[in-house]
Amino acid sequence: MNDDRDLLSDASLCLETCRKMGLTISTAESCTAGMISGYLSAISGSSDVLDRGFITYSNQAKQDLLGVLRVDLKQFGAVSDVVARSMAEGGLKEAGTGICIAVTGIAGPGGGSDEKPVGLVYLACACKHRPTLIEKNIYSGNRDDVRRKTVQSALKLIIRQAEAFSE
Question: What is the domain range of residue 83?
Fold first, then answer.
């Protein structure tokens, strides 16, 4: 499992990549509740790239702040590719940034089911003038492990989306 130094290194690379591409970042976080923004903001000078973060732990917050449709939450559930995409695209629109990363998942130890087990996380990264990237992961470990692995995946997904921005 990555320790803080690895996550901070990934956050630094993420900021450098976005800075190089002229992209600002917003986050729309559910299961990580601000951890992605926290790692990005731990890097000195991040304020020229990191714009804002939405912590949308509840379904109501996802609707109110990001424009996630109630019908999608009901039909697909908060932990779904549909809702992750809607969170990322809604965050991009509301923040007016170049990139928005969204995460929604089940960190555990409870809350899982056969259909949606503990450790299931959807990530989506929306970027202006690019298709939204979506990932589905099932992480092992305890709650902290799942959340840290989600942060790591989110930072790498932002880098992938930012690098594709110039293509």
Answer: 4-165
